[in-house]
Amino acid sequence: VVTEPGLVVRHDLRWLELNLPVDAEHWAAMAVDEVVRRHGAASERSTAALRRDLARFAALMTRLRPAQAFLLCPSVEQGVVTIVEINTSPLQPEATSADVVAALRVREDELVEPPEIGELADAASAAVRLRQRYVDRTSEHRGVHDMMIYAWPDPAAQSLVLASTTFIDPLLASRWISAVDELARGVQLLPAS
């Protein structure tokens, strides 16, 4: 359980919490030890590769500065599958869920198929769920990407909590989106005190 002001995230042992800022190398060494403790030892090569990847991702997240980040790491061998960033942004008091979705949509000409828009079932706090498959023609990871965005409007605080991740491999997305949905179900907005 990770607590930010006004936010609790419950998650299972496949997720590593990254509370920023961190010393990337130090955090990576501790995180690898935690993955080994949770899921079992692996070859030295796999362990060293995971440590390098975790340090690189921790450094990246420290530069990007999300409020929180969670890394899906089911085992040493599988490594980091995806990173979910959690951020907050201002919310206009009159904004509706449709307004939120419209602001988060990928351009129509980039979409591979119509987006999936709905509510996150059985969530600790009411959330909008947006899945968009789109073609990335600009980054080093060109191809079809699968983006998941979850939005928790908090009108009382005039803020919007957003959790997002992008899979650059559609096969990984089909296998792991349920784990991301499960993490999102564990997000709970706490009432202001």
Q: Give the helix proportion (percent range).
A: 25-40%
List unreliable stretches of 5+ residues: none
User: What is the strand arrangement across the widest sheet?
Assistant: 3-4-5-9-8-7-6
- How many strands appear in the DSSP assignment? 10
Instruction: Assign an overall shape.
Output: globular
Structural class: alpha+beta
Number of helices: 4
Return the string of H and E elements. EEEHHEEHEEEEHE
Termini separation (Å)?
Answer: 20 Å
Report on the biggest sheet: 7 strands, antiparallel
Average pLDDT score: 89
Q: How large is the radius of gyration? A: 17 Å
Strand content: 25-35%
Characterize the structure shown.
The chain has helices at residues 24-39, 44-64, 97-104, 170-185; strands spanning 2-4, 7-9, 15-18, 68-72, 82-90, 116-119, 128-136, 143-154, 159-167, 187-189. The protein has four helices and ten strands, in the order E-E-E-H-H-E-E-H-E-E-E-E-H-E. A hairpin with a 6-residue loop joins strand 7 and strand 8. The chain is globular, with a radius of gyration of 17 Å. The mean pLDDT is 89. The longest helix is centred in the first third of the chain and has 21 residues, at 44-64. With 193 residues, the chain is of the alpha+beta class. Helix 1 packs across helix 2. The strands form two sheets. It has a seven-stranded antiparallel sheet with strand order 3-4-5-9-8-7-6, with helices on both faces.
